Amino acid sequence: MTRTLTQLELLTELEPVAEQNLNRHLSIAKNWHPHDYVPWDQGRNFAEMGGIDWEPAQSQLSELAKAAMVTNLLTEDNLPSYHRLIAESFSQDGAWGTWVGRWTAEENRHGTVMRDYLVVTRGVDPVALEHARLVCMTAGVQHPTGVDDNGFLPGVAYVTFQELATRVSHRNTGRVCNDAVADRMLQRISADENLHMVFYRNLCGAAIDLAPDQALLAISAIIRNFQMPGAGMPNWRRNSVLMAKHGIYDLRQHLEEVITPVLRKWNIFERNDFGARGEQAREELGLFLEQLGKDVLKFEEQRDRALAREAHKRERQEA
Ligand SMILES: [Fe+2]
Ligand SMILES: [Fe+2]
């Protein structure tokens, strides 16, 4: 049986891979500027400075677009919690420390540009948004990984899936905003999330090669307990249901666009370097994914029925 590696051994062994991927990231990451993505000419003063305060009629966004924008923005706002998670489960030294700092700096742009856009275009109530931010950041994200272990392996597995999930969510939010400016901004953010995902996916992949059983146990626990980072924020249930109902982030996307492609990239179901513990974890993971596939169908049946009921109700109201 293979020995379980300590946190320090994992980080030391994987530091060259972190350095290589950090350099790769720096060579391809685009140095974009939030101010280039905001339509400043649409802006005007609020009452405090002689203008008028926000009113619902000023927003061009649908209820769905508003819910998705706010959910995604509050998720970005919780960056300090995520910084803490990554800083604790990675190392502050060498390439690890540089990555954590750089990643945090890049992520901060996402919240900046989305808030500027929403305030300038009057897309949502800025007072309610600020209130939600305070509630959200005060609570912070306690155990985002869903597992009681703040080690490197669960941490890197979680952020791999989470970056990809936010990529999907931002990209699909852009599509429902019905505004080319918002779409361009959210595509830009999605491209960042994808590069972040690649870094974490490569590191987690190298960890599987290094300690296959140990890594798979962590990955499997993360997949089985996965929660979107927004869980627990104000109106989370209402907003996440709305987003799932309209294909911004639903169970099929979670399974087919987030979980499956990453597991395929790691060759989880084809590898032959697992020991007994790894084999068992793989079997359990396989069963879990099979069940998730069934849950997808069940969810979609319910969703189709609910959407049909709503359409029917609308028709009757219009008649
Ligand atoms: Fe982000
Ligand atoms: Fe990201």
UniProtKB/TrEMBL annotation:
Keywords: Fatty acid biosynthesis, Fatty acid metabolism, Iron, Lipid biosynthesis, Lipid metabolism, Metal-binding, Oxidoreductase. Belongs to the fatty acid desaturase type 2 family. This is Acyl-ACP desaturase. Its cofactor is Fe(2+). SUPFAM superfamilies: Ferritin-like. It comes from the Bacteria. Homodimer.
